[in-house]
Amino acid sequence: MVEDEKLVAQFFEEHRQEIADDGFSHRVMSHIEPRMRRYNRVWSLVCAALGVALLLLTGCLKSLPTLMSHVAAGLWTTLGGIHFTPISPALAFFGVIVIMLVVAYNFLLSDKYSL
Amino acid sequence: MDRINDISLVAQVAVFHNNRAFDKLVLKYQSPIRRFFLNQTMGDGQLSDDLAQDTFVKAYVNIGKYRGVSSFSTWLYRIAYNVFYDYVRSHKMTEDLERPAVHSKQGEHRDTTMQMDIYRALAILSEPERTCITLQLMEGQSIEYISEITGIAQGTVKSHLSRGKQKLTNYLKENGYDGGR
To answer: B1, B125, B139, B176: most buried, per Cβ within 10 A?
Structure first.
């Protein structure tokens, strides 16, 4: 009985094959990426829709222009109060904007799949 | 150590959506999972790859549900098992798999003669016997893990293994296989 089990085990051991990847994992990852992008887009749309609905229902939309002008004025006043000679406040403001755009660009690039 | 590495990679995928980490898991387990499907589908390479791809996609989508109680390979095999039987139920393949016909769709890199022998041998088994036998003798899973993967009670797994091995022993002896003695 033990010999018979060894016979079967040996047969399977001889026929056990390792399968080369041959691009299989790449195909799997290529299939996953578009699917997850779709999920992310749907989720982003849902969150955006909820945000807009919240703005409309609470009436914050009407106050938004006033709020934005107060924020901009406050930011400009703050920058004006900082003495960055020879750097002007406007230059510092644009420098911050450029840095934010670079960070956002790198963030969007990092989301793209690459091996 | 191996299990810790797997858990580390799973955590990176689940928490940080690190696709490179998941790619490492796919590279590590693509061979045993594809081999599992090849044995269940009697050598249908195209179908095996499709089912294996479905398995890994399901694993990725449900990665957050892996709790680390069992090993990642056991969890993956469980998904593969469910994928296969979902396919069988949906395509009513049972009768085709029971027939001792061997699929001719095989990759060029595989030894056709050797693969026909293994699939002809597996064809004499029932589906549960084939699954249990290949999980134990090809994939090295214990009875406990086979029970976990298939949801079959351990006693029943032992019965399937015993009957399957008896059938295979008779088949091998009838076909002149003596293990090189």
So the answer is: B125
pLDDT tens-place string over residues B122-175? 999 999 999 999 999 999 999 999 999 999 999 999 999 999 999 999 999 888
Q: What is the dihedral of CA B161, B162, B163, B169, to 10 degrees?
A: 100
If you ran DSSP here, which 8-state letter would residue B64 be given?
G
Nearest to B125 by CA among B78, B169, B177: B169
- Give this prediction's pTM: 0.68
Q: What b-and-e string marks burial along B54-85, b requiring 16 or more CB atoms within 10 Å of the CB?
A: bbbbebbeebeebeeebbbbbbbbbbbbebbb
Neighbours of A18 (CB within 10 A): 7
**The one-letter amino acid at B22:** F
| A16·B177 Cβ contact <8 A | no
- Best A12, A39, A42 member to test B by mutation, with max B CBs in 10 Å, is A12
Residue B177 pLDDT exceeds 90? no
Backbone angles phi, psi at B18, to 5 degrees: -80, 100
Contact B53 A115 (CB under 8 A): no
Q: Cα B4 to chain center, whole Å? A: 23
